[in-house]
Amino acid sequence: MKIIKMGMPVFLILASCLFLVGSFNLPKANLGNPNGPLYFPIGLSFLVLIFSVLYLFQELKTLNKENKKITLMLAGRTPKLIGLTVLLGVGYAFIFEIIGFLFSTVLFLGALLFVVNGKQKWKVNVIVTVCFSFLSWYAFSVLLGVSLP
After folding, report:
1. What's 12's DSSP letter?
2. Matching PROSITE patterns, A to Z (predicted)?
3. Phi, psi of 34, rounded to the nearest 5 degrees
């Protein structure tokens, strides 16, 4: 776990340096300010670099302390919930094209709510599932005119 926690800021520092170098190699604009296309990627790269260095220092300070939050998180039902959510998401991705947005969303959201809330709150699960699925379909298909599968 410590390798991952230390590896991420190092990876982000390296990635932001690569993006920074790449940003300086962007072509100049022909119209307006010639350096206009450079401002956003350079600024974003600097922000990621600064926050990654701060994150690295923060992780170095807490390197020797035991992180009790992670231990508590892995002790409860959280790993089961994470695993089931990932499996349901993969299943949703597979059935989305086959049965369409509305029915696959009802199945996915319903199963997810039953996993999280349990069978005791089945009325709330069904109402939220049907209302959210229908309202999101209505908003995208009818109001926004986006064609959903």
Report:
1. H
2. PROKAR_LIPOPROTEIN
3. -65, -25
Nearest to residue 26, comparing CAs of 14, 36, 15, 12?
Answer: 36
Q: CB–CB of 38/23 below 8 Å? A: yes
DSSP 120: G
Greater model confidence, 125 or 28: 125
The two structure tokens encoding residue 104: 């696959």
- pLDDT tens digits for 21-60? 888 887 887 777 777 778 888 889 999 999 998 888 888 7
For residues 117 and 124, give the distance between their C-alpha atoms in angstroms, rounded to a whole number. Answer: 9
pLDDT interval class at 111 (50, 70, 90): very high
Q: In whole angstroms, what is the distance from residue 33 CA to residue 86 CA? A: 46
Tokens 């992180």, residue located: 67
pLDDT computed for residue 88 by the predictor: 92
